[in-house]
Amino acid sequence: MRWLFHYRGRSTPSGGHKQIRLTVKCLRNLGVDAMLLPEGIVEDSHLYDVSVPFTPFDLSTAKEHVVSEDVVITGETKLLTFLSVTSTMHCRKAVFNKNGFYALSDWPGKTYAQLGFEFALSSSNYNLALTSEILGMPPERCFLVTDDINRRPFGLPGKSPFERVLAVSYMPRKLPRDAVRIRWAVNMLFPKLPFVPIHNCTEQEVAKTFTQYPIFLSTQDREGFGNPALEAMSCGTIVVGYPGTHPFTPPYANSNNGYWVRDRQWLHATMQLIKAIRDWKAGSHRMSKIYDAGIVTAENYDESRMTESLREVVKTVTACSYSLRNISSFPKLTSAEREFAQTSLDTAAAKLRKSP
Question: What is the arrangement of strands in the sheet containing 195-197, beginning at the earlier edge strand?
């Protein structure tokens, strides 16, 4: 049995693509023959510092090489296109729902089970609940795959925030309008404060920026998990801003490990950033506690935990023993989350009806 992950690749770093690579890496640690199945010619390993093998064939010719016991896993978008290409491919198929927002907006009009997918992987509890309750995969066939954040080049906290040069790192491509507004407002009060952009960087460059400066402004938005802020926390960087999963419950952000505000509330984020800067200047005990809590939070996301979560997936899928799983603690959506998801699904359905 081989596990082949459909991989479109991209020219800029992506948290979802990084998680696919890390998943393949951990499966191979378990002795599973796991590889990336490219769509066309793709080579972007230098962006992620995670080198894993590609299949010697791509998606367009995969039907000539894939056999019935192979597992082919695709992402949460463009499912109908994937299924049309693989319609004559006799194998087991699954979905890796890394980002529920994308899964909802690109809903194909049928549930995952109706489309013929055997099981689903998800990157956070909200994605897991969404995959079952809204996207129609039975809970015993849904698996949480934790992310590996606390690893090199991340996971090295280094100096405390107070020993670093005061500057704020941020990602200009994440809600750029909010980032500009926050920078402008904060610079009115602190005109000499540097804002250091993180854009089109390798993982090594990102980690170096995180460990060099004490504060990271998070303008994460519509995230499946929210890698950047947690990567910053693993480097001992204080995070200010958005968890990025509203209205869904964020997987790791809480009042103890960051100066968090509700997503897209740029004025509130500005006030919190000003508070964090003042706390840094005062060497406050609160910031020290947030620093410690952030590191502890990031330690919950490492290779050993990711490998362990995949161990259950491999065991269950290999034996087709879904009915034997204990799903008593399976996550549930809140009424507000369910309402948002259903509204998003209705919008996607309306788009489908209008399409030729």
Answer: 195-197, 168-170, 215-219, 238-242, 259-260
Supply the pTM of this predicted model.
Answer: 0.95
Give the CA angle between residues 18, 20, 22 to the nearest 5°.
70
Strands (E), the chain: 2-7, 33-38, 71-75, 92-97, 119-122, 142-144, 168-170, 195-197, 215-219, 238-242, 259-260
| Residue 304 one-letter amino acid | S
From 163, 146, 158, select the one nearest 312 (Cα to Cα): 146
State both tokens at 143.
Answer: 């698996």
Residue with tokens 């926050």: 182
Asked whether the bond before 172 is cis by omega within 30 degrees of 0, the reply is no
d(Cα 266, Cα 263) in Å, to the nearest integer?
8
Q: Are 276 and 111 in contact (CB under 8 A)?
A: no
Tens digit of each residue's pLDDT (9 = 90 or more) over 24-77 = 999 999 999 999 999 976 777 777 888 899 999 999 999 999 999 999 999 999
